[in-house]
Design goal:
The complex is a heterotrimer of chains A (976), B (88) and C (423).
Chain A lengths: L13 E10 L2 E7 L3 H8 L3 E4 L6 E3 L11 E4 L6 E5 L10 E3 L38 H11 L14 E13 L3 H12 L4 E4 L16 H14 L4 E4 L2 E7 L3 E6 L14 E13 L3 E3 L12 E3 H11 L7 E5 L3 H11 L6 E4 L6 H8 L4 E3 L1 E7 L6 E6 L5 E7 L2 E5 L2 E3 L2 H5 L4 E4 L4 E4 L6 E3 L9 H12 L30 E3 L4 E2 H9 L5 H8 L12 H12 L3 H4 L11 E2 H5 L4 H4 L8 H6 L3 E5 L2 E6 L7 H14 L2 E4 L4 E6 L3 H8 L12 E7 L5 E11 L2 E6 L4 H15 L6 E4 L4 E7 L3 H8 L15 E6 L2 E7 L7 E7 L3 H12 L5 E2 L2 H11 L45 E8 L11 E3 L12 E9 L4 E9 L8 E6 L4 E8 L9 H4 L1
Parallel strand pairs in A: 1-7, 8-9, 8-13, 9-10, 13-26, 15-22, 16-17, 16-22, 17-18, 32-42
Antiparallel strand pairs in A: 1-2, 3-4, 5-6, 5-7, 11-12, 12-13, 14-23, 19-20, 20-21, 24-25, 27-28, 30-31, 32-38, 33-36, 33-37, 34-35, 35-36, 38-41, 39-40, 40-41, 43-46, 43-48, 44-45, 44-47, 45-46, 47-48
Helix pairs in contact in A: 3-4, 3-9, 5-6, 10-11, 10-12, 17-22, 20-21
Chain B lengths: L2 E4 L3 E4 L4 E5 L12 H9 L7 E7 L7 E7 L5 E6 H5 L1
Antiparallel strand pairs in B: 1-2, 3-4, 4-5, 5-6
Chain C lengths: L9 H9 L20 E4 L3 H14 L4 E4 L15 E2 L6 H15 L1 H5 L10 E5 L2 H17 L4 E3 L1 H7 L15 E5 L3 E2 L2 H14 L3 E3 L4 E6 L5 E6 L4 E2 L3 E3 L5 H7 L6 E11 L9 E4 L4 E5 L5 E11 L7 H14 L7 E13 L5 E4 L5 E5 L5 H18 L13 H4 L16
Parallel strand pairs in C: 1-2, 1-12, 2-8, 4-14, 12-19
Antiparallel strand pairs in C: 3-7, 4-6, 5-6, 9-10, 10-11, 13-16, 13-17, 14-15, 15-16, 18-19
Helix pairs in contact in C: 2-7, 2-10, 3-10
The chains are: A alpha+beta (976), B alpha+beta (88), C alpha/beta (423).
Chain lengths: 976, 88, 423
């Protein structure tokens, strides 16, 4: 089954070591060092895939990752990998390989019928049809979607791990071929830190695609020298994917696409490297040649055939026809002949090929000068090549039986990285290729990537690039004494494919041009030219030239499409590098988190924090639990962990002035030891955040803000201090993490406080509302602040975070005799709603102090952020949404989630919204659901009936619009 | 990737910073400014294509607000100063 | 008589197949600019082309030029994630985008060009009770506006999006989702080409590779024309629709705008067979995902967060978006990222667009599209055409005036304040 394996040779294989994998269930033998592609080719059936659109049978075509046809599926389950390039996958024992995009089998693909209909499926056909009847597009589309796509999608989580690395280097060399190796050596010997990234497993690149010679000794010596340099890091199997601004590059290091199982090592590593200088030595790509049915299995680039022969000892065909326009075709013919193939013909586009052709002829190889292969015969494999003589009257010379057609259409540099780094691409008519223009970033292309195709010259060029020598002039162009690949006539009819994967033929490009799509970007998008997995590496230059011809412009003026990262596709897993879940977003926990956990708390996410939402010990459901918790607070005493609130220490001689400018109300008149509620606005006059500010000393304040606003408020403060008023002598320090905070609330709060601080005078006279005392509790420094969020007698105790757990547990123990109930955020919310306190649900970034009923807090006697904006006309409008309370008419009525407020309950009928519910809870005191809401001109509607509605859920309830304070409007409880 | 040379911390990646927008807008004098001047300060920007003077907060570093010269097309970064120094 | 040179249909495809598709007439011409037009639209993106189309079709203005600096549809029209929806909270936005959605529903037929508008649902997942409240509030508002919206519980989500991670152990577990069933995606390039063909076939001159370098003004201050790289072109009405570059172009007229330019990126994987047939958007994880008809998984996330005109992808963003996407769709880890690109967004100070008059008579402005530009394309053109033709805004765009900022009458969908990167 290895009919195409040569008797000897193959730089990368070990003939002593064999194994097998399966392809579509069939056993395929391989030699160690083989790729899946080389083993399949050795086995002899060239059919490896089906094309994207027409499902035409396809074979191995190009070397390396730009292979358009041999895309296969590896593994199954969580490791299922679609679209793997058979050309880059090492053959490993037991590997499961399947063909894709065919049904039921690769050989007999029912969708191959599409090829018969291709006359009605020209480029962009879908823009012209499937429009009738309009309602049926989704149906058409479902079918189109099934036909499209390449491999099957994985449907399970990927069990493998991926790693991310960051690095810095003096010189990054992209490409480990001759130029890249020389560059790395030169830079390494100059003492630079060097990273050399090579896409394949074997450094040397193209050196392995040729026979023996002095270059093999050079390769061995160079690799030895590089290995001896500690400042050079060699990364095999690593592609440079992206070249971003400021010399940042990304590298994908993938030991293997077929993941090794269960050894705990990452299957891929994604590097982000900052390189002072980059040498781009990514080589050149060979261009396909145009002839009818140039996509048949067995048609292959000469560079791929050379690679299979010299690396793996595999013949691309036993009876090949070789077609091209330079002397390399004769070398290839000789090499294949020596390896056991019978070269049926060498077809040279040049009318007068010269000495190499004569030598070949003398050696008995049939040669055809001034001729072309005009058509491939065969369907699932090439069976013959039609050889036509060119000239004024082209004519068929011979239909030569053959099992392969190897094409040498000349090379063009790889330009991806140069272009990603914003370097221009310059059309060079002598090269018939785009060459990299002067680099914009700190890089230089070398070797084939710059058009230096000669081996010795490429090594020299790499050496100079590594040593950072000045960029030499344009390299000498190859001889161009034959028609360009895109100028070949279509002598036989039949489709000539430019982009094999996407089935884009030359006449598709002509059609696009005819229809007015003249920009190459339009043609790309209209025909899908270059949109496949190789991102136009193969098809780009020819497509461009064909378009230029069709529009009568020259190629330089036609321009190129934009090159975008990645240069070679990289798995999402590698890019993410495992930074999801808790690795990507660590959970923040308070000092009492372990206690909450043990108490069985149900947690809720508050940004990165997790907070106890309720304690199931207090009730089976969230609703039961929070009602019980809130009731216990109103009746006795409860406590809640409020550590997540933001805390900022503001100090300095101008601290009071700063706070006066940050808050719309006045804080500078606070006496030490006293606190005040503060309202912070954005400069556009809307409420930004709120919190209580305590003055610790003449020049020092303790500022609290909301959990969600903590970092934004601090940034805002620093902005005020450093940008707006740098003359102020004050300092802000975020101290949220330094303090653990707990709120005690309820009529028995003082009793509990007394129990843990027996020596402290906590009487109403000594510690009235908005007063702060400092003391020691549970071995830590503590601040006790009398303030109330719940509307009850309440204290907030702050203690050093390291003593937080001790304080919490001490309170739990001390509270037991007093019936202490621990409550969560749900009950906390219910208590504050009853009291009419606002949160970010009400201060939603659109509301002003006046909207929230807090207009009285805006002091006109001083400048503060957001105060001048209160004068804007839009802030004065009468029908702005204003904060009101809502109370359910019926005791058993529920307030729907995300409810809107309407005047009438009309089910799903469209009607005006008066406003929306911002927060709601069950009020034990009022014996029914209550809510806060923002309602148009709401304060004027107090007393009116309305409805809270959720048309989405089909729910509604009758409510009455009331004042937003539901309990104790005079505040007697909290001052008691 | 932007790399911003913080005067205190050295060259750091953009992920450590929070962007603060155009650094050339100046808060009007509240004693004299018209409402139009406030609207211009709050809402209008030059938004140039090319060199831009802008604010960055080194949020995962020294908490300095920096005034950074950066090109909005090439993303090349020029002079970096502390906002406090830039104002004086 | 058809308004099109070539009527597109399946029978037409068959007919042309017989002649090898060599007789199709150009969809668009490449005319030389005339010295004067009745109206000039600056910007050959979807919005500018739609404006020209509706000027010709609905307002009888056919002596119109569209001036495009590069190639039509080459800006944000060709650089977005193609999502179409009208699920906005605030009334002006919801009504405008709903009008757009209705135009989308008839667009392929109207343009006789298949723009592949696919109403496959746009689903917003909710990960915290707060997010559920806010999202439900928005969707309840939609229903009151007469716009479709529905709730999907976890079981329904599991059926609709089988590959979504609905595990309770996720970092931000999914509690449920809201969906706009009429939302979906469209083929972005086709929208530009369809409008271009429709406008061109009605007589509009679409002039590519023609950059506007200045505005000509009369003694009374009125606009009298534009200066371009292909010479001066006169017109008494000039509409600018160059979102992404609005600051730059309006700067040529001496105007400062409430706009910053920011980068928005998108990424696609290599194509695979279909597994995701809805658009999923998530607040907590801040990304959106869909699968194209070609089979590519299309991902987008937040802004890069700083002023930029660099139309190219950057590194930190793709890392965050990809990580979030794998968290929610653990099956995509082994798919390969194939292409990354970026568009320059006009980010306004309130997150809502601007369509209307400017202080300069005869000069009209359409821009500030933030994330909403693609889905707005038909309605933007429709409203802008009305505004240019009549000199006054249509009720649908009456709220989107440029002068709203002077009154602080902002339309702040997110409540994020005057910080463009936050919208």
């Amino acid at each position: 089954m290895t009919r195409n394996r040569t008797a000897e040779g193959g730089w990368l294989i070990d003939r002593a070591s064999t194994g097998s994998f399966t392809f579509d269930g069939r056993r395929v033998p391989f030699l160690a060092g083989d790729t899946v592609a080389s083993a399949l080719l050795a086995a002899g059936d060239p059919l490896v895939g089906r094309s994207f659109k027409l499902h035409r049978p396809r074979g191995l075509f190009a070397p390396g990752a730009q292979e358009p046809n041999a895309l296969v599926v590896l593994n199954d389950g969580g490791r299922l990998t679609p679209n793997a390039r058979a050309t880059t996958i090492p053959a490993t024992p037991g590997l499961q390989v399947r063909s894709q995009n065919r049904w039921p089998s690769l050989r007999h693909d029912a969708f191959g019928l599409l090829d018969l209909a291709r006359a009605v499926l020209p480029a962009g056909f879908y823009y012209k049809t499937f429009m009738w009847p309009a309602s049926q597009w989704l149906r058409y589309e479902r079918l189109i979607r099934k036909l499209a796509g390449l491999g099957p999608p994985p449907r399970m989580a990927d069990p493998d791990i991926y790693a991310r690395r960051h690095g810095h280097t003096d010189v990054l060399v992209a490409g480990g071929g001759p130029a890249g190796l020389a560059a790395a050596l030169a830079a390494g010997r100059a003492g630079m830190d060097v990273v050399l990234a090579h896409s394949g497993p074997a450094f040397g690149g193209g050196l392995h695609d040729r026979g023996d010679g002095p270059h093999r000794a050079w390769l061995a010596e160079t690799l030895q020298a590089l290995a001896a340099l500690p400042n050079v890091r060699l990364l095999a199997n690593t592609t440079v994917a992206g070249y971003y601004d400021n010399q940042t590059l990304t590298l994908a290091e993938r030991p293997c696409d077929a993941a090794p199982v269960g050894d705990g090592k990452p299957v891929e590593r994604f590097w982000q490297i900052h390189a002072e200088r980059v040498v781009i030595a990514t080589g050149a790509h060979e261009r396909p040649l145009l002839f009818a049915d140039n996509d048949r299995p067995g048609v292959m680039l000469a560079s791929a055939a050379r690679r299979y022969l010299w690396r793996y000892g595999v013949l691309a065909g036993r009876t090949p026809v070789i077609f091209g326009s330079d002397d390399t075709i004769y070398e290839l013919a000789a090499d294949l002949t020596a390896a056991g193939a019978t070269v049926r013909a060498i077809v040279d586009l040049r009318p007068d090929p010269g000495a190499a052709a004569r030598r070949a002829e003398a050696a008995g190889l049939p040669t055809f000068a001034g001729a072309m292969v005009a058509r491939a015969h065969g369907k699932r494999r090439v069976t013959a090549a039609e050889i036509w003589r060119l000239g004024p009257r082209p004519h068929l010379v011979e239909t030569m039986q053959a099992d392969a057609i190897l094409t040498a259409g000349g090379f063009g540099p790889t330009l991806q990285l140069h272009a990603q780094a914003r370097g221009a691409l310059l059309w060079d008519p002598d090269f018939r290729a785009f060459l990299p223009g002067p680099p914009v970033a700190d890089n230089r292309s070398a070797g084939g990537a710059r058009g230096v195709f000669d081996l010795q010259a490429a090594i020299r060029d790499g050496d100079e690039a590594g040593a950072n020598a000045p960029l030499p002039l344009r390299p000498p162009p190859p001889a161009a004494d034959a028609p360009a690949p895109w100028d070949l006539p279509n002598l036989t009819g039949g489709p000539r494919f430019v982009d094999l994967q996407n089935d884009v033929a030359d006449k598709d490009i002509a059609l696009a041009a005819r229809e007015g799509y003249h920009s190459i970007e339009h043609v790309k998008r209209y025909t899908t030219l270059g949109m496949g997995t190789d991102q136009g590496k193969l098809a780009g230059p020819i497509g461009l030239a064909l378009l230029a011809a069709a529009t009568g412009k020259d190629i330089a003026a036609t321009g190129v499409t934009t090159f975008r990262p990645p240069a070679t596709p990289v798995t999402f897993g590698a890019v993410a590098g495992g930074d999801f879940g808790e690795v990507g977003h660590a959970i923040r926990r308070t000092a009492a988190d372990a206690w909450h956990e043990q108490a069985g708390a149900t947690f809720i996410d508050a940004g990165l924090w997790r907070r106890p939402q309720f304690y199931p010990a207090n009730g089976k459901t969230v609703g039961e639990a929070y009602r019980a918790e809130a009731l216990a607070v109103r009746a006795g005493v409860g406590m809640v962990d409020v550590s997540t609130l933001g805390k900022i220490d503001v100090s300095g001689p101008d601290a009071a002035t700063l706070l006066d400018r940050l808050y719309c109300n006045t804080l500078s008149t606070l006496k030490p030891g006293r606190g005040r509620y503060g309202l912070m606005l954005r400069e556009d006059g809307r409420v930004f955040d709120d919190g209580v500010v305590f003055r610790l000393a003449a020049d020092r304040f303790h500022v609290t803000c909301t959990t969600g606003g903590a970092s934004a408020v601090y940034q805002h403060m620093e902005h005020a201090l450093q940008v707006i008023w740098p003359e102020l002598d004050a300092y802000a320090t975020p101290v949220s993490e330094e303090w653990f905070a707990v709120a005690l609330a309820g009529p028995k709060a003082r009793t509990l406080l007394k129990a843990i601080a027996p020596d402290l005078d906590v009487s109403n006279a000594a510690l009235p509302m908005m007063r702060l005392v400092e003391t020691r509790l549970f071995g830590g420094r503590a601040r006790i602040m009398r303030m109330s969020y719940s509307g009850e007698l309440s204290y907030e105790i702050n203690i050093g975070a390291n003593r937080g757990a001790a304080l919490w547990q001490g309170l739990v123990a001390a509270g037991r005799p007093h019936g202490l109930v621990v409550y969560g955020t749900e009950a906390m919310g219910a208590l504050r709603i009853e009291k009419g306190h606002v949160t970010h649900a009400e201060a939603d970034g659109r509301t002003t102090p006046a909207d929230l009923g807090l207009a009285g807090m805006v002091s006109a006697r001083k400048d503060a952020i957001g105060v001048p904006a209160q004068a804007f006309p839009a802030l004065q409008e009468a029908d702005r949404k204003q904060l009101v309370g809502l109370i359910a008419e019926a005791a058993d009525a529920r307030i729907p989630v995300g409810a809107q407020v309407t005047a009438e309950d009309l089910g799903d009928q469209p009607r005006p919204s008066l406003g929306h519910v911002t927060s709601y809870a069950y009020s034990a005191e009022r014996g029914r659901m209550i809510a806060l809401a923002l309602v148009r001109a709401g304060r004027g509607r107090i007393g009116e009936a309305a409805f809270v509605v959720s048309p989405v859920m089909g729910e509604s309830a009758a409510v009455r619009i009331v004042d937003p304070v539901f309990i104790d409007p005079e505040g007697e409880r909290l001052r008691g | 990737m932007l790399l911003i040379p913080c005067p205190h911390c050295g060259v750091r990646p953009e992920t450590e910073f929070v962007y603060g927008g155009d650094a050339t807008v100046r808060r009007p004098d509240p004693k004299t400014a018209s409402l139009d001047a406030w609207a211009a300060y709050i809402y209008e920007r030059d938004n140039p294509k090319g060199p831009h003077t802008e604010l960055w907060l080194h949020a995962s570093g020294c908490h300095s607000w920096l005034v950074v010269e950066r090109d909005t097309v090439t993303h090349a970064i020029g002079q970096v100063r502390q906002a406090r120094d830039a104002a004086s | 008589m058809s308004a099109f040179r070539d009527r597109y249909s399946f029978p037409a495809l068959v007919r042309h197949a017989i002649s090898g598709h060599k007789r199709w007439k150009p969809a668009i011409r490449h005319p030389e600019p005339k010295p004067r037009y009745d109206a000039i639209v600056v910007g050959g993106g979807g919005h500018g082309l739609a404006t020209a189309y509706y000027l010709a079709k609905l307002h009888g203005l056919t002596n119109v030029a569209v001036l495009e600096r590069g190639w039509i549809g080459g800006g944000n029209t060709g650089r977005n994630t193609t999502i179409v929806r009208s699920n906005y909270l605030l009334e002006p936005n919801a009504h405008f985008y709903e009008h757009s959605l209705k135009l989308w529903e008839g667009l392929s037929a109207d343009l006789n060009f298949n723009v592949m508008f696919s109403q496959r649902s746009v689903i917003n997942t909710c990960h915290t009770p707060g997010e559920m409240e806010a999202t439900m509030r928005r969707y309840n508002a939609l229903r009151l506006y007469g716009i479709d919206a529905e709730f999907l519980d976890r079981a329904a989500l599991a059926r609709r999006v089988p590959d979504m991670n609905l595990g309770r152990d996720a970092r931000w577990p999914i509690l449920g989702a809201l969906s706009q069933p009429r939302g979906g995606v469209a083929r972005h390039d086709a929208v530009a080409w369809g409008f271009a063909r429709g406008a061109d076939n009605r007589g509009v001159d679409i002039i590519q590779n023609c950059e506007v370098t200045g505005f000509q003004r009369g003694a009374d201050g009125r606009v009298t024309g534009v200066l371009t790289t292909r010479g001066p072109i006169a017109s008494d009405k000039v509409g600018v629709a160059v979102a992404g570059h609005s600051g730059h172009v309006m700067g040529l007229a001496g105007m400062r705008l409430p706009i910053e330019s920011h980068l928005l990126q998108a990424f696609v994987s290599e194509p695979v067979k279909p597994f995701l047939d809805v658009v999923v958007s998530t607040g907590a994880l801040h990304f959106y995902i869909s699968q194209t008809d070609k089979g590519e998984v299309l991902l987008g996330g937040g802004l890069d967060g700083y002023n930029s005109y660099g139309q190219r992808g950057t590194m930190p963003n793709i890392h965050e978006v990809t990580a979030a996407a794998i968290e929610m769709f653990p099956n995509i880890s082994r798919l390969k990222w194939m292409r990354q690109w970026a568009g320059v967004m006009d980010m306004t100070m309130d997150g809502s667009p601007i369509i209307g008059k400017t202080p300069i008579p005869g000069l009209f402005f359409d821009g500030g599209w933030c994330y909403g530009g693609f889905k707005a394309t038909p309605a933007s053109g429709w409203c802008f055409a009305h505004t240019i033709a009549t000199g006054e805004p249509h009720p649908l765009n009456a709220a989107f005036t440029l002068d709203r900022f002077g009154r602080s009458a902002v339309i702040d969908e997110k409540g994020a304040g005057p910080y463009p990167k936050a919208h």
